[in-house]
Each structure stands twice: as C-alpha cells, then as structure tokens.
Amino acid sequence: MSVLGPLTAAVDGRAVNLGGRGQRAALARLASAGGRVVSTDLLVDDLWAGNPPPKALAALQVHVSNLRRLLEPNRAPRTPATVLVSRAPGYALALPADALDARAAEDVVRRAARGDADAIDALDTLLDDWSGEAYPEFVDTHWGHAESDRLRDLHDHAVELRAHMLLADGRADRAIGDLTALVRMRPARERASGLLALALYRAGRQAEALDELRRIRRYLADELGVDPSPELRAVEHEVRTHGAPVVVSPVTRPAHTVPPEPAEPPEPVAPTVVARPETDDVLATADAAVATTSPHLVWIVGDAGAGKTTTTRDVADRLTARGWRTARGRCPEVDGAPPAWPWIEILRALGVTPPASVAPFAVAESVCRSCSTTPVLVILDDVHRADEPTLQVLRQVCGTAVGALVVAATYRPDEATVDLMAARAALASVPGTTVHLRGVDRAGVAAIAARAGSPDLDEEVLSRLHARTAGNPLYVREFAGLIRSEGTAALSSSVPPSVRDVIRRRLDRLPDRTAVVLRRAAILGREADLTVLAATVGESEDDLLDALEPAVLTGVLTETSSDRVGFTHDLVREVVYDSVPRLRRARAHRAALSVLADLAPDDTAALAHHAVHADTAESVPFLIRGAREAERQFGFRDADGLWAAAERWLRESDATDLLDVLVGRVGTLARLGDVVAAREARRQAVSLAEAAGDDDALFRAATSWTAPVIWTIRTSVEIDTAIVDPLRRLAASELPTPAHRALVASALAFELEGTFGDASADREADDAAVSARRWARESDDPAVLARACTAFGYIAFGPDHVDERVANADELAGAAAAIGDDGFAAVAHYQRFLAAAAAVDLRGARSAAEAATARAAGHQLAQMLGVLAVYDALVDVLAGRYDEARARYDVVTETLRAQGAASAEWIATLGRIGHGVAIGDLGEMVDELAAIESVRPQSVRFVYVVALLDAGEEDRARAQWRTAAPYPRNYYWLAMTTFRARAAARLGDSVVMAETADQLQPFADAVAGLDSGSLYAGPVAAALAEVADRQGDAEAAARWRAVASDTLRRVREQLDASE
C-alpha cells in the first residue's frame, strides 16, 4: 500500500482498484492509524465528519467486506482476515512495516537516526520514491489533514537528516538540491536553512550561503519577531570568518514525526478485572480448602450483570497463578442441553473424558477422581437454571470428593428455584461461604467505563453513571457504550428505564443485515454453531461472518471458538430474542428444527427444544423422542415440559399417540411431586385405553406410575375406582409375563394401602405387595424388582412384615444400583431409616436418612430434607427440648407450605401431638383435631378422643368412640393403635382393650410413632400399662411400666451419646 501520494494498493504485484471515495476513505483512515485499532464508533465519526447517517455502521461494514475481498482475493472461506483484521472494538490494518510506504518511511528514518551504515542510501531511495503529498484525497478531513501534516514533517525531517549525514561525510554538494527545495517550500524551517547555508559554504559557494543566512534572519524577524538560534548564529560565524567548522548537532527526531514502531495488533485479551473485596472471600475459602484438603463450597449471589462471571474469572486467574487447575461449566439459559451439561463441560476442561453413563453418581465419581491430586477450582455458572442432575452431581461432589477442591456456584437470587434452595439446604454442612455481590464503587465504574470506550468521563458524569447503574458492572458497560456512541447526553436526556432499553438502543445501531442474523442466532441459544446458523439464515458462511462482524466488534457477540459465536451476556441474547415477533419466532424455530434434523440428527435435546417452540404438529415426534431421552438422563422437569407440549398438539388428533404421551407424563409428573396431576393423567390414559378396548394399552396406562414412592400417592380416603377397578381386572386376567403381573400388583398395592374402615382392602394391598415382589424376582428384571420392592417396603412400614424391612431395603438397593436410578436408591435408604427408627436405633436412623438425602434429587430431595427435619424435631421431643421441637416442626411446615405441599399443615399437627403426649395433655388440640376429622374422617380419631378426654369432654369423646374404626395397617398404625389402647382404657372398653393389648405386645419395647420417623406417641409399654391398670392387673401394669422405663432409658442413653 502507498499513501505517500495518491492512495494505491497492489496484491501480488498487481494494482487493485480500491473503489469509490467512501471505501478508499475507510482504508486510508485505518492506514493512518499505523497498525493500531480504530473503534467502529471513531471510524463512523471520522468517515462521516461527525454527522453519520442512521445506518452508518452497515455502510462501514460493507466497505470493510469489499476491501477484504480486494486485499485478500485468495482467502479461503471461513478463515479469518489477516490484512484488514477485526479487533474489538473495531478494525486494524495488520501489515508488515514494509507493506505500507508510510510505515516503511518511518522505519528508514528511525534506522538512519540510529546511524545505520547504509543510512544515506536508504534515505536517498526514500526521498526519490516519495511521490507527493500524503493522503491528498483526504486533507479536507481532520484526520487526513493531521496525518498528511505529520508525514510532511517526516519527509522534511528525512531531508534534514540526510543533509546532516552528508555534511559529516564531506559530501556537502549532494545535500544542496534537496535542502534548497525544502527551504523554498518551508521558509520558516530554521534548521533546514542553517544546513543549506553550511552546505553552500562548504561547497565553495560562500556568497550564496550568506544570502541564505540573511534571508532566514529577515524572515525570523519580520514574520516571527525572534532572533536566530545559537546554532544558526554559529553557522553564520563560520561562513563569515572562515572559522573552525561548526559541529552540527545530530538532527533530533520530533516525537510527532516518527512514532515508535507499532507492534502488530494484539490478540484480544480479557479486560483487567475491577478489584472487588468479594474476591478475597473466595480466595480465603481456597486457602481453607488447601489447609484441610477437603471440599469447600462458595455461593456467589448477584443480580443479572452484577459481575458473577467476572468475579469467578478473577478468582480463577489468581488461583491458576498459584498452581490450581480450574474448570468452568455454565447452566444453559434455554432448554435443549443434555442433563448435567455443566459437569460435562467441567470434565472436558479438566481433560477428562465424560463417563458413558449420565447417572449423577457416575458423573460425580469422574469429577472427584479428577480433583484428588492437585487443588481444583470448579465454577458452576447460573445454577438458578440448573436441572436436577446438575444439582445432584454438585451435592455428590461436595459430599464425597477428597482433596483441595473449591466449587464456586453463581446464581441470581430472584430466579432461584425450589430445587436449588433444596440443594442449598442439603449442602448446608459443607464448609464455605456465601458472597453477595453488590455494585462497584466510583473507581470501579470509571475503570469499567474506560474499558468500554469511555475513558475520559468527568467527575460529574461519573457520579451520574454510578447513581444510574448502582454500580452494576453490566449496566455500567452498556451505558458507557451508549455514551461512546451518543455522547453524555445519553445519561441526561431520555434516560432508558432499564438496561434492556440500553442494550436495545445499542442494537438499533447495527446494520439491518446484522440484526437479522442476530435474531436467528438468538433463536439457537446463548451460543450458535456457524454452520447451523448459516444454514438457518440461508447464506454462505463467509457472508454470515461479514454480517456478524459488527456485532462482534461492538461487544454484542464474542467468538467462543473457531466455529462458534456466543452472546456476551444472557441479557443481550434475551433482548434480541424478545425482539422477534411471536409468529416469526415460531417460524425461526421451525427453520432451526429442520436444519438440525439434517445436520445434527442425534442432538435430541436441541431438536426437542426447537420442537417446543416450533408450534406445529410436525414437531410431536421430536418432542416425544426428546422427552424419553430426558427421562433416560434423569432430566424429569425437561421431560415433563416436552410431554406437555406434545399433549397439547395431540388433544385433537390421534388418540393412540395421546395415550402414549399421557403414559409418559404420569412418570415425570410423579417424579416432580405433582401427585394430583400425575393421577389425573393416569386416569385419562386409562379411560382412553378402556374406550379403545386395548388391554395392552390399559396395562401401560394403569401401571404408568414409574416413580419411586416415599409418601402415599393417594389423594382421598376413598378408593379411586377409576384406577383400582381396571387394575383388578388386569390382575384377574391372563397376563403374559411375571413382569406384567408384578407391575399390576405393585400399582394395586399403592392404590389400596391406608384405606380407613376397610380391612379387606388392607389385606388386598398386603397380598398385592407380597405377590408383586415374588413375581418381580421371577421376572429377572431389576426395574420391575425396584418397583415391587418399593411397594412391599411401603406395606412393611406397617406391623405385618417387620422382620423383612431391612432385607427388602437391601434388595431394593441392589435393584436400584442395577438400573442406575438414584431415586429408588434413596427409597432403599429411607426404608432402612424407618427400620432403624422402629428399632429405636436413633444413630442408625439418622445415618440412613442422611444417605437417602444424599441420593435424592429434585422433589424427592425436598421430601427427604423434610423427613430429616421432622426426624430431628422428633428427637428434640424425645430429649425434652419441646420449644426447639415445635420450632422445627413449624419451620418444616412453612417450607412445605411454600412448596405447595398438601402435607404442610399435617406436619405441624404431628409436632403438637408429640408435644401433648410428652407433657401428658392434648386438651389444647381439640379444635385442631376436630377440623382434621371433619375433612378426613378416622385419620386422627383416636388422638381426638384422647384430646377430648384430656379436655374433660367425656361425652363428646364417647360419641366419637362409638363410630371409630381400627386404623389401617400402615406406617402410623403403631402410633394410632397406641392412642386407641389408651382411649379404650380411659373409656373402659374391655373388648378394644383386649384387642389392642394383643396387637401391641409384640411391639412392647418400641416407642410408638418413632417407626414413622415423624410422630411421638410415647412408649408402647406405657399404653399397655394403662390397659392393665384398667383391667385390674396391677402386676402386669407394673411390668409394662418397667418396660416403658427401660425403653426411655435406652433413648436417653443414645441421646446422651450423640451430644
């Protein structure tokens, strides 16, 4: 390229037609920067003289694209430009020094000033080739004029430098011609005049030398009113007196004439992070992790744009410098990513191949192995979007890793999910800290604004910017970008109400073509594959890159890899996505679905994501496939969303497909804890199957409850005949395999358990559970066995299979391990918990409950946390800490109420019952128990009768007693039968006293209600003593009181040992 004269360029020796003035001006402006980056805002301002048209950025991008084709005609598609390069926040010319004549000239002058041996020859060549005024087309612009003046000074400086060297070499005559021309053009250049006079004198032309000296003296006096410099007077003295030769000092190099040699445009680097005190908190946690060689957890909490990612990046940089390994995983902001995806990213960042199994325990084990040798920082970004498997892996890693490990998990507090809060509760015992990010101070605002292109904000503007953004780094950056584009008026006039509007205003400045491509990129997600994006847009990849470049340069997009681009922040992507009208959005998702079906047919999650938003019946197969894959990978919330989308489309179409979708939804809804919706979906599926007369479909519908069960799945005390009748018909039919029979029997057991006042239903439930396990063993199918052992274990919570509880839990654990399902593994531990509690093994019970909690995820985790909290409250009752116990029960109640759990109020009632038993007075609970009985008759009948008696209302107690029915043989049977015995003794019902005494004696050394893990009803032997007293058997009463005393002693010993 040449700018020392008319602007020209040649490629491979052939001249290039650089096009019209606008295109030539863009190239000249970049050339004038000497290889340095020129921001797009400055380019636009300079090229349009401060008055750019509305779409100036689009015009600039067209100029750049055209110039790149001219300057690199042989560049391969999708390869980055190497001449006119993109460097945020703009462009630069990345040319070698000898490829641009102005830079080559600077290099020649620089080397000559150093005294290189060939300096005179190099300067001769330079001056001979200098073809005229620099940038002559653009001297009417402020930048062109300034650069032309600078290069003119460089030329004059070269002439003077050459003359100085020729004089020193004794060749004065060769310097005269160029100096004479220079003095004529620049009559005020005193140094050039002095050198010319000296050259003339030393060439034997004294008279001409004196003429030049008189000229410059007059010029200085007349035009400038100054005397000649000492050096010029010394020259004049030599010429007039023939004195000793003047030693001419070397020609100094004006700083503005020959700039330092520019480096090649640097690669983009991460901006310097604004120092924040929160970083020190995280580093302190890292020190603690090293000191204890144990996992530590840091929760980094902040609103959108508060600097969570930047803070963790700063921590990662600092720990890397200390020798730590670091890895980051981001929870995707849109659906369509595989379950536990952040941990897959983390494993890859640590150089570990992810396991073939996506089960959370397998993933967690891989993470733990990779963290056992050197200190590791793991960053989980945006866990407010985490799916259940991601949170479960987090819990497993923090609970089982060995070595110095810090997990930093970031989230937005206003978007925290119930699952996340449950995970936080489960991780409460892991050492670490919580960091709440606040806004940066004014110094931080100034630093961020400077990096965003607004370095010279005055104090008043900085104060307003700080107040407007509250120091939120993202808001500061966006406003600073707006100030750079629109000036400080952006803060004072029409101030945007939110950062979204700031982002929107910045997006409005982008070329129309760029905006179109950005909207398609937003459809694809936070990041987009360039091949996929090009196919959805319908452009070549080179044209696509040209369209995206303005977005990259303005900080909307970033190049995450050689073939992917991503939005720089979630909010930017959200604003772009929201700008797409709903109808166009659906069409764009359909286009993405079509492209991905061809280019990535195995990316089930991404296909399903676009199928949800495509809003067309043709997407249903992708939805069903995605839902099944999500279920397989334990992403039940994602699966239910896909099932629900498919259901919406099938409601008015094919009934067979609708039945399959409903069957799929039952399991996911049950896993998510929505028992009511799951039952309704199953009821509808059963109805469709019966209407079709399809027994196979009926079997699939009736046995569709595939989720593990901890608490009852019944929603009414009445038997649900819409489900039970079909199950009974199936059970009586000739089912083809033991697996079929086992699944039907398992479903029937759960539908009949806990039926009040129907002993035959209790027996049928028991028979079904026993048969289910027997047939499941015959089936040799661990998935079937897991469901059957869950049903049997549930029935065994009652009084009829006490000796088989532990063995059944072990069998269930084996089946759960075989199928890799942590949900069923959690149930196995839960069954062990209840078995230990029933045996008054308090330590064993808590250990098993903790193990169940460790395995649980999602809604099941919330259930198990509730179980653990209620058990701790029960232990408080046993220890006599009644106030603490009631407080714990109340906390659990509030938590469950916030989750919308129907059992919330019941938990509080259990706490008050236990307290009343402990103090020997339930009278204050009469009204509360009466209200429960009015809704669910018989559920607390015997407690209610005892409460009425404690309140002195014997008549009401007898009225309730007359209609009371024995309690179902489930997990509350022992507690409620204990209350029944006490009520019978106080009311003198000899028949019931005899019946309950026989029933309770096998459990005489137990604490009633402890086997449920939630209720204290006193020692069973104490109730037997009351019965014996009423029967007049003082000896038996004394014996039972001794047993009760011994039971309480064993409890106290365990409590003392645990403190």
UniProtKB/TrEMBL annotation:
A Pfam family annotated for this UniProt entry: AAA_16
InterPro entries xref list? AAA_16, AfsR-DnrI-RedD_regulator, BTAD, OmpR/PhoB-type_DNA-bd, P-loop_NTPase, Sig_transdc_resp-reg_C-effctor, TPR-like_helical_dom_sf, WH-like_DNA-bd_sf
Asked if the keyword DNA damage belongs to this entry, the reply reads no
Kindly give the CDD domains that the UniProt entry links to this protein: BTAD (cd15831)
Q: Which PROSITE patterns match?
A: OMPR_PHOB
GO process annotations (BP): phosphorelay signal transduction system; regulation of DNA-templated transcription
What does the UniProt keyword field contain? DNA-binding, Transcription, Transcription regulation
Q: Which GO terms describe its molecular function?
A: DNA binding
Domain OmpR/PhoB-type residue range list: 1-95
Task: Point out the DNA-binding stretch(es).
Answer: 1-95
Q: Which domain of life is it from?
A: Bacteria
Family membership = Belongs to the AfsR/DnrI/RedD regulatory family.
Name this polypeptide is given: DNA-binding transcriptional activator of the SARP family
